[in-house]
Amino acid sequence: MNGDADLSHPARLMGEPARAAMLVALLDGGSRPASELAGIAGVRPPTASAHLAQLVDGGLLVDRRIGRHRYFELADASVADAVEALQRIAPRRPVTSLRQSTTAVRLAEFRTCYDHLAGRVALVIADALVHEGSVAPLAAGRVGEITGIGPLARRLGVEGEGDGDLVAPQGRRPLVRGCLDWTERRPHVAGAVGAGIRRTFLDRGWAVGLPHDRSLKLTDAGRAVLADLG
After folding, report:
1. Can you tell me whether residue 159 is helix, strand or coil?
2. What spatial distance separates the first Cα and last Cα of the chain, rounded to whole Å?
3. Angle, nearest 10°, between helix axes 120-132 and 220-229?
4. Fewer Cβ within 10 Å of end Cβ, the chain: N or C?
């Protein structure tokens, strides 16, 4: 039998500015080498290596070696949820340059949240799925419910391939979960369905990732899809 969770352990790891910057950079669900994370965090490579070792030992990151390089990524979706949750309660840094302002606008509009979509565009998608009756109204942090499969849900890839079955959850992961959007303050679609929708947008060329941050850009085809959602 275990006692209460020791919040001080992950809090200590996330509370150091350089480590926090690395975790936020990896919220796009991708992998990055230590040298790139050092640049993002603004520290020297040996310092970055020490921080990354602590994050791996603490269970927040995992690493894998490809050739001579080690790549780091978030350990799982629960780490991404924790980082996003802290972003919702953290004070906002002042915007002091045009570049920072432009980045903030891009992230608020459309971005990845680990393996699903976030930002204003993601809220349009969530609202459309709820309005269609394919997804029950979402509650932040709660497991959601598929209530039907309408034309929009099919277009977004909610169904499985060929046999018409729903997207299968992996392990204990729910099909649908409401994830509170830290910029919009309303829940967007997470879970296996949210991950599937993100794959659909990227695989069909409706959105493309941008370098240096986790913002996404709608293509012409993507804007047409969004217009159809109302």
Report:
1. strand
2. 51
3. 40
4. N
Beta bridge partners of 35: none
The amino acid at 18:
A
CATH class of 8-89: mainly alpha
Are 146 and 135 within 8 A, CB to CB? yes
Q: Where are the domains of the chain?
A: 8-89, 98-229
Pairing relation of β-strands 69-74 and 187-190?
A: unpaired
Q: What is the dihedral of CA 180, 181, 186, 187, to 10 degrees?
A: -50
Pairing of strands 207-209, 111-113: unpaired
Geometric angle at alpha carbon 27, from 94 and 208, rounded to 5°: 95
Residue with tokens 């109302």: 230
Which segments of the chain are extended strands (E)?
32-33, 61-66, 69-74, 111-113, 116-118, 177-180, 187-190, 207-209, 216-218
Tokens standing for residue 81: 């949820």
pTM: 0.78
Instruction: Decide: 204 and 219 in contact? Cβ < 8 Å.
Output: no
- Both tokens of 153, joined, read 């849900």
Residues 109 and 121: beta-carbon distance below 8 Å:
yes
Tens-digit pLDDT profile for residues 57-115: 999 999 998 888 889 999 988 898 888 888 878 887 777 777 778 888 888 999 998 89
Over the stretch 170-197, which tens digit does the pLDDT of each residue have? 556 788 999 988 888 899 999 999 999 9
β 61-66/216-218 pair status: unpaired
